[in-house]
Specification:
Elements (H helix, E strand, L loop, with lengths): L2 H12 L3 H20 L4 E3 L3 E8 L2 E4 L6 E4 L2 E8 L1 H7 L3
């Protein structure tokens, strides 16, 4: 499911105009993004949680040339699947 399908699904489920459903989805995603950028954890029960992980810098190797390169420290968003979703997805 992509964002436009989510908007359509919300509009159909709640009998909303597409524009209103789009505004709702955009607001939710925007607020989640702002919280993550501030370094806050975003938890959606039954789905999982988003947070920012800090990674230390390290010496890496360019696989093409073999040259040693310095990889700087970075902060990246990370998603951890919730227990409920993990259990539901593991039915095969």
């Amino acid at each position: 499911m992509n964002k436009s399908q989510l908007i359509e699904s919300l509009a159909n489920a709640e009998d909303l105009p597409l524009k209103k459903a789009e505004d709702i989805v955009n607001t939710v995603f925007s607020d989640m993004e702002k919280a993550i950028v501030r370094g806050e954890r975003v938890e959606i029960r039954g789905l999982g949680s988003f947070k920012v992980k800090n990674y230390e810098g390290y010496k890496g190797r360019n696989p093409k040339t073999g040259e040693i390169i310095e990889v700087s420290p970075k902060r990246l968003p990370f998603f951890k699947v919730g227990k409920e979703l993990k259990e539901r997805a593991d039915v095969y």
